[in-house]
C-alpha cells in the first residue's frame, strides 16, 4: 500500500500594490502623515501596515535612498514604484508623495506667514522639532533588531553607526567625506563577508 503524500504548503502571495491608483493613494496617505517624522511613518506604513517590505528590506532600501541626491522618502517612493510597475509606477509614486503634501505646505506657509513672529508660533515649532527627533529615534531603535540578519553582523553595523554619529554630530565632518570613508569601509567588509558565505556554501555542496 503506497503512502499518501502530504500536499505541499501553498505559498502565500507577497503583499504588493494592486494597481497604480493603489500605489498613488498609499503614497499620498503616507506623505500626509509625515510632518516632521516621515521616517517613523514610512516604516510603519510600508512594513507594518502594507507588508510591501520587511524590516531588513526597508533598511537596505532606505540606506540607498539616503545616499542618493534628493529627499530620502521621494527616492524610496521612486524605487518602490519602479519595482512593481516600472516607469509608470515610479511616476505614480512620485505624484502621490508630492502632489497633496505640496498643496498643504503652500496653504500652511501662507497662513503661518502672518504669525511667524509670535512667541507662541516659535514655541510650537520648537516643540514639534523635539517630537520629530523622538519619532526618528524610536524607529531607529525598532530597526536595530533587523541588523541581526545583516551579513556584516549586528556588532559591526552598530560600530559603523556609532562612528558615523561621532563623525557627523561631534566632529562635524562633511557628509560626503563620511560616506566616502566609512561607506567604503562598510562596502569592502560586506563584500568580504558575502564572499566568505559563498565559499562556505560551495564547500558544503561539494
Report on the structure:
There is one protein chain. The protein is mainly alpha-helical and 206 residues long. It has two domains: 16-113 and 129-146, no CATH class; 150-201. Helix content is 74%, strand content 0%. The protein has seven helices and no strands. The two termini are 37 Å apart.
Report low-confidence residues grouped into runs of 5 or more: 1-5
Task: Give the overall silhouette.
Answer: globular
The profile of the biggest β sheet is:
none
What Rg do the Cα atoms give?
Answer: 22 Å
Produce a short descriptive summary:
The protein has 206 residues and is an all-alpha fold. It has helices at residues 20-32, 38-49, 55-67, 72-112, 119-143, 154-170, 175-205.
Describe the SSE topology:
Blueprint: H1 20-32, H2 38-49, H3 55-67, H4 72-112, H5 119-143, H6 154-170, H7 175-205
What structural keywords apply?
mainly alpha; 0% strand; 206 residues; disordered N terminus; single chain
Amino acid at each position: 500500500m503506497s503512502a499518501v503524500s502530504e500536499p505541499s504548503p501553498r505559498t502565500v502571495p507577497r503583499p504588493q500594490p494592486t494597481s497604480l491608483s493603489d500605489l498613488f493613494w498609499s503614497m499620498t496617505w503616507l506623505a500626509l502623515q509625515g510632518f516632521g517624522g516621515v521616517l517613523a511613518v514610512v516604516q510603519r506604513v510600508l512594513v507594518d501596515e502594507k507588508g510591501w517590505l520587511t524590516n531588513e528590506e526597508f533598511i537596505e532600501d532606505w540606506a540607498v535612498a539616503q545616499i542618493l541626491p534628493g529627499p530620502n522618502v521621494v527616492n524610496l517612493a521612486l524605487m518602490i514604484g519602479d519595482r512593481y510597475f516600472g516607469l509608470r509606477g515610479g511616476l505614480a509614486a512620485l505624484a502621490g508623495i508630492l502632489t497633496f503634501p505640496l498643496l498643504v505646505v503652500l496653504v500652511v506657509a501662507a497662513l503661518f506667514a502672518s504669525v511667524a513672529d509670535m512667541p507662541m508660533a516659535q514655541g510650537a515649532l520648537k516643540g514639534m522639532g523635539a517630537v520629530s527627533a523622538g519619532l526618528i529615534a524610536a524607529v531607529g531603535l525598532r530597526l536595530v533588531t533587523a541588523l541581526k540578519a545583516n551579513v556584516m553582523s549586528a556588532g559591526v553595523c552598530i560600530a559603523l553607526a556609532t562612528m558615523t554619529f561621532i563623525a557627523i554630530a561631534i566632529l562635524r565632518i562633511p557628509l560626503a567625506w563620511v560616506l566616502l570613508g566609512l561607506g567604503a569601509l562598510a562596502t569592502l567588509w560586506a563584500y568580504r563577508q558575502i564572499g566568505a558565505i559563498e565559499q562556505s556554501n560551495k564547500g558544503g555542496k561539494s
